[in-house]
Design brief:
The complex is a heterodimer of chains A (490) and B (554). With 490 residues, chain A is mostly helical. Chain A is built from 21 helices and two strands. The radius of gyration of chain A is 21 Å and the shape is globular. The chains are: A mainly alpha (490), B mainly alpha (554).
């Protein structure tokens, strides 16, 4: 077993072990989950530190046979695009596990499903085989339905069904696109590197123009690309805390990652052809999410709509096909993941005590819950792109890419930042400052578990925000070849 | 009719079938010895005997031969026999509790299950129409009795009656088709039919009517739309293990016979057959899935879902007639689908049976509410099975559908694959609603206790825990260790007392269902098979490949 397979399989094995634990031993369940997430987290740190961007390409390679009858192998490897994603997933796994310690309802089933989903996410980010990527992509989304109906709140059945059906609808597109690529390439291999190297020979322009949008749209469902984003506010609103953290923090990135890794990488001619179309969709998403967030009164719905807006930036960054935009999009995926995980962890800490998330019900929380307020405000500032936090660098790069290619889009995106400042600051001012609502004077501050999760996530935001160079070097090393293939702006 | 000398027949090739035959009588004899109280002993005799037969069958792998010209023994028939035996063992294991609770005289029940397995095995071996018919009737007669086995249950009786009347009707049609073919061709051997159809005989009206009737009779056994109408009623009324038996094995046997007949006997008319199967496939999968959307009874839901799954397999049979390697790949796909479906359905019915035994035989989907709390294992089995039926990865359904649909796509029927995938997506919708009942809803009779009571309960639990030193330390290690540096003054972790899951009070009391060891073993076998195919399919793919090559070795 190499690093990547251990990291991917650890949560899965933990899920199996947890199912064998008798249900009157919830602490053992928690211990196993914590152990697995620590293992994965530690390995993700090793990968982060050990990846050499000077060398570039896929590193930490592993190969296993799986379905020789179909030419499917388990090829593992990470490049500069997936290393930040792997680290993001590991930190969301660890913090999600920690903040869920308090769960008392069926912890066994919860942790088993949660870990299976996260293992699937690792699989997507580490896979260099298209088939395994698709397989793990489905595994990641599969447990979400049960996690939401069993432990969720607000309109959970509707939201869970919507998420599941939209995820599967997206998979359907991806599945069709994947089979088309496989058959077009001679039904021999799903190896992404092989397919990418042969792309010019194997995939004629007409083929690329047909299947690029199919795959882009398929992954676009999970990336919450407008108008396929509608599962996202409902899903995040209904999901329990740790699941919101994973769904918004990581699952949406699976979609964007698939777009980069499969659609743009394998079908560069299609990417050039469709670039204006998807830039338009991304821009609409960014503006639309921002406007919708202005109208929300529930913490989770504000954050969820702001996520749609931020994922709109990511789509714009990718679709401009400029190096700055691509680098920014990847960094934005990372930073938005960390920031949203922080948001949802904090909202969960509040909701567990109050059973309401209506922003207008609160006031002056800063005095009773100082830590909570501090973490939440940092997340809000990262969300509106304050310099010094990771969101700033990412958004700056995306806007730069947009100005280089579609200046109008650049202006619209910057206008959206003003929207973000409005809804975030208004929410913070309303709930945390101003007069105390006497109904909530008894609230306690964060539990130790929540505090630890908050510190981890805030530290990541600050470190990457203050010193993004190593991250950007790594991302740039792998994004540049992709952009070069497309012939985009460098 | 082939002529043969009874002295020189290769009796050894049928060793597994002799064992099964002996086992039928052994069950009845053991019943006489142990009496009605000892029905579990009879059940275990049946299970172990079938396992021995399966072992014998496995040891014959790779042996080929014919028995008196009418039975053909090769990897194809061997693999199907193994499917029926393993499926039969699963059904038997799942019957123990159910039979004890709802059926009188279970010993004969086990004996008839084995008679059914024998009949199915012979169907997979037959290469002559009358033999096939007799094997099919052996299965049908056992099924009629099994369906109406709950003698005091009105629904079971109704189902039995419907099954007998419609079943004999379809048998009559089948037999009429056989006699017409015999009249026109002068033989009932598959190979002779092949020869006759290759010549000028193919276009005679007698032959065409005969073939249509034959197809209709087999369509009834496959429960293909429009011959499916009996199946939801029968599935609903039959005792649940019998429902499992019908959908697991009986359908697979019908496929085994159909594929053999098509490949050996009817190959010359493959063009027409391909169209016919394509139409049947689309009708079957679409109607099965659409009607399943509106079901409120879990057994009826499984009946329609089973119809839909048969539709997917029929689609691959439609691809049998393309050129090159595609036929072999398609039949490999069908065989894999049947193997995967057997394990999956066993797991599903395992969950349903465990639920019914503990809940007075209830069968509405709404009755499953909160099953994950009352019986986590049964809920897990049923959930996994439903995901597998919807074709989700890590479960067998994903892999088997991959192998099933790829040859269809290669045979230039991409539109068929598209229809099937849309159907799969529709099916996920109704499967998820069942899962929602089990995980999302509170069980009936659930008592939520208020905060004060919860506190008291937690303190009581804590006091109890303190008695076990290790547990005590461990609990706090897990709860506090990572983040509290041990400075918490309270002996009880606060979240253990006031736990909430986003709004739902979580200190809930509910009665736990009890599962017997046999049920657990049955479900575990099914789950193991399902996950094996889902995660590491290569060995089973190789077996199916061998069977499929044998099928096409004419």
């Amino acid at each position: 077993m190499g690093y990547l397979s251990t990291m991917t399989v650890a949560p899965f094995v933990a899920a199996l072990l947890i199912m064998l634990v008798p249900s009157n031993r919830p602490w053992l369940t928690r211990l196993i989950a914590l152990g697995a997430s620590l293992v994965s987290f530690a390995i993700s740190l090793v990968v982060l530190a050990g990846y050499s961007w000077q060398a570039g390409g896929f590193q930490f390679r592993e190969t296993y046979q799986w379905l020789p009858q179909f030419g499917v192998q388990v090829l593992l490897g990470v490049d500069g695009i997936s290393v930040p994603m792997v680290f993001l997933n590991a930190i969301v796994l660890l913090t999600g596990t920690i903040v869920t310690f308090k769960i008392a309802d069926r912890p066994k089933e919860f942790y088993a499903l949660f870990l299976v989903s996260v293992a699937g996410v690792f699989g997507v980010f580490c896979s260099v085989d298209l088939f395994v990527l698709f397989l793990t992509y489905d595994i990641a989304g599969l447990p979400m339905y049960i996690l939401i109906v069993a432990w969720g709140s607000t309109r959970k059945e509707y939201a869970a069904m919507k998420l599941a059906m939209m995820h599967v609808a997206g998979s359907l597109f991806v599945w069709v696109g994947m089979l088309a690529i496989y058959v077009q390439a001679g039904s021999k291999s799903f190896d992404l590197e092989f397919l990418a190297a042969q792309a010019q020979v194997l995939f004629p322009p007409a083929f690329q123009q047909i299947f690029f949008p199919v795959i882009f749209i398929g992954f676009g469902f999970l990336a919450a690309m407008w108008p396929l984003h509608t599962w996202s506010p409902d899903g995040h609103g209904a999901a329990p805390t740790a699941v919101s953290m994973v769904a918004a923090g990581v699952l949406m990135k699976l979609g964007a990652y698939g777009i980069i890794r499969v659609a743009v990488w394998l079908l560069p001619v299609g990417a050039q052809f469709w670039s204006p179309f998807f830039v338009t969709l991304g821009t609409i998403g960014a503006v639309y999410g921002g406007v919708m967030a202005l109208a929300q009164r529930d913490f989770k719905f504000v954050i969820a709509n702001s996520s749609v807006s931020h994922m709109g930036y990511v789509i714009v960054g990718i679709a401009t096909l400029s190096l700055a935009g691509m680098n920014g999009a990847i960094l934005q995926m990372f930073s938005h993941g960390v920031m949203t995980a922080l948001f949802f962890a904090m909202v969960g800490a509040l909701y567990d005590q109050t059973h309401t998330r209506e922003v207008g019900m609160f006031g002056g929380l800063a005095r009773t819950m100082p830590w909570f307020t501090g973490f939440f405000v940092i997340a809000a500032l990262a969300s509106l792109g304050l310099p010094g936090l990771s969101g700033f660098v990412a958004e700056l790069l995306i806007f730069l890419g947009a100005f280089q290619t579609y200046p109008v889009v650049g202006f619209l995106c910057i206008a959206t930042v003003a929207l973000a400042a409005t809804y975030m600051l208004r929410m913070v001012a309303r709930a945390f400052f101003g007069p105390i609502n006497p109904q909530w004077t008894h609230l306690r501050d964060l539990l130790p578990a929540e505090w630890i999760a908050g510190v981890l996530l805030v530290a990541t935001l600050v470190v990457v925000g203050v010193y993004p160079a190593p991250f950007l070097d790594m991302i740039n090393a792998s994004a540049a070849p992709v952009i070069e293939r497309v012939g985009g702006v460098r | 009719m082939p002529s043969f000398d009874t002295a020189t027949l290769p009796y050894g090739l049928l060793a597994p079938q002799w064992i099964l035959t002996a086992l039928i009588f052994a069950c009845l004899t053991v019943d006489l010895i142990v009496g009605p109280r000892g029905h579990r002993a009879v059940g275990w005799v049946a299970v172990l005997g079938t396992a021995v037969a399966a072992g014998a069958q496995a040891s014959l792998w790779g042996t080929r031969g014919t028995f008196a010209g009418v039975l053909r023994i090769d990897e194809y028939s061997a693999l199907f026999n193994l499917i029926f035996m393993v499926g039969g063992i699963g059904v038997l294991l799942l019957s123990f509790d159910y039979a004890e609770r709802f059926l009188g005289q279970p010993a004969e029940f086990y004996a008839f299950v084995i008679a059914g397995i024998l009949g199915m095995g012979l169907m997979a071996q037959a290469q002559e129409l009358l033999t096939a018919y007799i094997a099919l009737e052996l299965l049908s007669f056992s099924s009629y009795i099994l369906v109406s086995y709950a003698r005091t249950n009105l629904k079971s009786n109704e189902a039995g009656l419907k099954y007998v009347i419609l079943g004999s009707f379809s048998s009559a049609i089948l037999l009429y088709g056989v006699s017409l073919l015999y009249g026109a061709i002068g033989s009932t051997m598959f190979t002779d039919i092949h020869a006759a159809l290759s010549g000028a005989g193919a276009s005679s009206a007698t032959v065409i009517v005969g073939l249509v009737m034959l197809t209709a009779g087999l369509g009834f056994k496959l429960a293909a739309v429009p011959f499916h109408l009996y199946s939801p009623d029968v599935y609903e009324g039959a005792p649940t293990p019998v429902t499992a038996f019908l959908s697991v094995a009986s359908k697979a046997a019908a496929f085994a016979l159909t594929m053999r007949l098509v490949v050996i006997g009817l190959w010359p008319v493959r063009g027409q057959l391909s169209d016919a199967f394509a139409v049947l496939a689309i009708l079957t999968m679409t109607l099965g899935n659409v009607v399943a959307l509106r079901q409120s009874n879990i057994k009826r839901l499984m009946a329609y879902s089973s119809i839909a799954q048969a539709g997917y397999a029929l689609a691959a049979i439609a691809a049998f007639f393309a050129a090159g390697d595609i036929p072999t790949e398609a039949s490999r796909g069908v065989i894999l689908q049947l193997v995967g479906y057997m394990f999956t359905t066993l797991a599903a019915f395992g969950g349903i049976i465990a639920f019914q035994v503990a809940n007075n035989g209830r069968e509405r989907i709404a009755d499953l509410a909160g099953l994950s709390r009352r019986s986590p294992f049964a809920a897990f089995a049923l959930t996994s099975a439903l995901f597998s039926l919807a074709g989700m990865p890590i479960f067998s359904g994903f892999v088997t559908k991959l192998f099933l649909f790829t040859p269809v796509a290669k045979a230039n029927m991409l539109w068929m694959v598209a229809i099937a995938i849309v159907n799969s997506t529709v099916s996920l919708f109704y499967y998820l609603q069942v899962i929602n009942q089990m995980y999302g809803k509170a069980p009936a009779g659930l008592v939520a206790i208020n905060a004060a009571e919860a506190e008291a309960a937690a303190h009581a639990a804590h006091a109890h825990e303190a008695g076990h030193g290790d547990d005590h330390v461990g609990a706090h290690g897990a709860a506090h260790g990572a983040h509290d540096s041990g400075a918490h003054p309270e002996p009880v972790a606060p979240w253990a007392v006031r736990g909430h899951t986003d709004g739902m009070p979580t200190e809930l009391r509910y009665p736990l269902d009890r599962l017997s060891i046999e049920t657990r073993v049955g479900i575990l076998v099914a789950l193991a098979g399902m996950f094996l195919i889902g995660l590491y399919p290569s060995p089973i793919v190789d077996l199916a490949q061998g069977a499929s090559v044998a099928l096409f070795t004419r």
